[in-house]
Amino acid sequence: MIASRVNKPTVSTRTIIELVSKEILKMDAGCRPKIPSEATMYRALKKLAHGKNLGATAATRRSAEVSTKDTFRRRRQILPGVEIQVDSTPADIFVRTPNGECVRPILTIMVDVATRSIIASSFRIDGAKGYDHVLLLGQALVPYANKPDRATTRTLASFGNPDLALLSPEAKYRAECARPMISPRRIHMDNGKDFLSEVFHSACAKFGIDISLAPIANGSAKGVVERTFKSINSLLLSTLPGYLANTPSNRGLKPNEENLLGLSALTELFDDWIANVWQNRPHESLSDFHEPSIKYSPNEWYAMASDYSAPLPVALTVTDYIELLPLRFRTITNEGIRLGNRFFNSAELLPYRDTLSGDLTNKNQWEVHFNPYDFGQVWVRVSSGEWIECPWRDRGVLNTPHAVDILRAGKNRSELKSERAEQARESAALTGMPMPGGSALKALEAPSLIDIVLEDDDFFDIEN
Prior knowledge:
It is a single chain. The chain has about 475 residues and is α+β, with helices and mostly antiparallel strands. The chain has four domains: about 5-65, no CATH class; about 85-305, Ribonuclease H-like superfamily/Ribonuclease H (Nucleotidyltransferase, domain 5), CATH 3.30.420; about 325-395, no CATH class; about 395-455. It is about 35% helix and about 15% strand. The protein is built from 14 helices and 15 strands. It has a five-stranded mixed beta sheet with strand order 5-4-1-6-7. Strand 2 (about 95) and strand 3 form a beta hairpin. The protein is globular and about 95 Å long. It starts with 12 loop residues before the first helix and ends in a 10-residue tail after the last helix.
């Protein structure tokens, strides 16, 4: 009976005693033992179930069942990059989409086991795909100085969230330059379809990175990254509006009605927090070998280990990073390149406007690479093989008078439309009246153009 409770829900001790009594009554009367008294059953169960986690959560019992039965010992990595753990989880926080909806984003992080450094991260509204993890790999392998400037995205994120406290450009540069540059030797991950995708495995093979898979239904096999998620919750997400807490019983009243952050704002804030706080905060697992009471930060541990044991980082160039990005094929017109309802242009595109690429397999369109998390620019591969960077055409609007007020007004207008659409649904449910016509409801739900400018994480996923 005790062994059979591993995959069953957690119940009270009295319920287990009742189940045992029923099993005894099912036995043949000739060999059926006498049912002990309730007090005797309690004493026997306390003795037999000791250490079996019958009163703990079902997840605790399952984890204990699949853990090793041999002698436990700590497997501590001291070489940066030897083992990188990666995983995704729904973040315990609400964000607001361009349509005014409240959703939980998917957080994916890469953690270096030796230094506990978070070397790459991403938030997605939908589930992460294979190319999202390729971008994570690009984050880890490309130094900050070689990455494209995100000033446009950070500026728009600040406009849409007045209370957002991002690092200044100077502080951001200092924090990022102090962040370790760790080249993964092996990536340890679970068996999700996104991690098993061909595009991610091909990217790892290109850079000589080994892949190891965790056993199914064994969270302790990725204990470092799982514990890091808990630290992110307690140290950062719990301080932000829309925090859901770790259990429904700890959740506040209507967190979805708070002044929620947008996805790009949360992404920029999280990136700042990693570089400025997490990497410089003493970690419990990074203790001194001789004096365990001394704790080191991820940056400090990397600095100590890199002099003796760290592999030579293989830093990618800007060109390498661009080639890792997802691509679309587009026509170059007089207005530039249209991608996701935005136009990108550059003076260097002038000789290629209204010309054919010669790529018959892609309808003579030009190869365009982009970062789904940063719409400040795209890159076009021209016939010579070189890359032309094309900034977002309307980025100059951010410097015009009253731009901040107009952008924030557009964001408030979108939230108001979402509230009106919800009120229309509630009225229809209470009165039995039909919902407004398609065009009327669409007008209530549709985000404003300004709001699309502010927040549109998946804007490159559409085909226009």
